[in-house]
Design a protein that fits this description.
By secondary structure, the chain is mainly α. The chain is built from 15 helices and 4 strands. Helix 7 runs antiparallel to helix 9 and helix 13 packs across helix 14. It starts with 6 loop residues before the first helix and ends with a helix.
Length: about 325
């Protein structure tokens, strides 16, 4: 019997691994996956984390290489595990890693699911980035306002203007929001601290929302009403609100797009770059160059910023070589 999960060992497991598993569980709950499926994935993954603690110096799973996973599966085979159990373990790990590299918290650094390279695993297709035009985003916000979904409209506009990650938006507080155009200090990736910037339009939408919300003791900007008590919305709730917007935009445009919360980060950067972002007029700028986009996105490397926007170099070159 190849038993890898140990309750005492799990208490010592890398906190980053535990946090990733919890985020993965929340995502699958939001997608309506069966509780049994989620629990089975969780059991497998917790066991792997215990194995990492004993064999791989308790490393964060996204820092592991192909050789680490191969060793694990070889150990499972040597211990006499059935092919079905090994395949199930591979499925659990692959799905969680696939979730991670599509999540805004990790996608800047982790672009490849190394589990897709393990023999017998189906290689995952490259994720399509969904860009929304400035017109589509404004239309979405106007429809949300029309429906009096002020808080969701605020989330969309703040995400689009600030190009903040969902985790950063989650940290925004209501105090002083209407007084200026920068948020309280939030903590981004690798512990970097900064303020998110926003527009006069963002403030106008926030006023609609805060006037409707009224007075309460909750410091968070994004909230839910729990049996008459206002409390901060769950992190996963922000994701749900964005998914809900797919149908709202479709009702306006007639086209259903599979955008996610990170699409507004991509779209914001792209529209700042191509000159279509509404905020440019307020800033008195025609476009923002890549070096400023890097600062706005709080990226450590300009190559990461480049990967967020549409590569139009070939189109520009073709224009230069045009016959007329």
């Amino acid at each position: 019997m190849f038993s890898i999960y140990d309750r005492e060992t799990y208490t010592k497991v890398n906190n980053e691994n535990k946090e990733l598993l919890e985020a993965f569980r929340d995502e699958y709950k939001m997608l309506g996956k069966a509780k049994g499926t989620i629990d089975q994935y969780s059991f497998d993954i917790r066991g792997f984390f215990c194995y990492c603690y004993d064999n791989f110096k308790n490393k964060f799973i996204l820092d592991l290489k192909k050789k680490h996973f191969k060793k694990f599966f070889i150990d499972m085979q040597d211990a006499g595990c059935s092919h079905a159990r090994i395949n199930r373990m591979q499925c659990s790990l692959r799905n969680m890693i696939e979730f991670a590299i599509n999540d805004e918290e990790y996608e800047d650094d982790y672009q490849i699911n190394v589990m897709s390279k393990i023999k017998g695993m189906q290689k995952q297709s490259v994720r399509e980035i969904i860009f929304l035009s400035n017109e589509e985003i404004i239309a979405l916000e106007e429809e949300l306002i029309k429906r009096k979904e002020y808080q969701i409209a605020l989330l969309i506009d703040l995400a689009y203007v600030s190009v903040g990650r969902r985790n950063e938006l989650f940290q925004v507080e209501k105090k002083g929001f209407l007084d200026k155009k920068v948020t309280n200090t939030v903590t981004g990736k690798r512990g970097k601290k900064f303020r998110l910037k926003y527009s006069n339009r963002t403030k106008d939408i926030a006023k609609l929302y805060l006037d409707e919300r009224g007075e309460d003791d909750c410091p968070a900007l994004f909230t839910v009403n729990d049996n008459g008590k206002v409390k901060q919305a769950e992190y996963s709730t922000l994701y749900y609100w964005v998914i809900k917007c797919r149908k709202v935009l479709c009702d306006v445009t007639g086209e259903y797009k599979l955008f996610g919360s990170h699409s507004f980060r991509h779209s914001g950067l792209e529209n700042y770059k191509n000159g279509s972002h509404y905020m440019l007029k307020e800033m008195g700028a025609e476009k923002l160059p890549l070096n400023l986009l890097k600062v706005l996105a709080n990226h450590s490397d300009i190559g990461t910023t480049q990967s967020y926007v549409i590569d139009d170099d070939e189109e520009e070159l073709n224009k230069l070589f045009a016959d007329d």
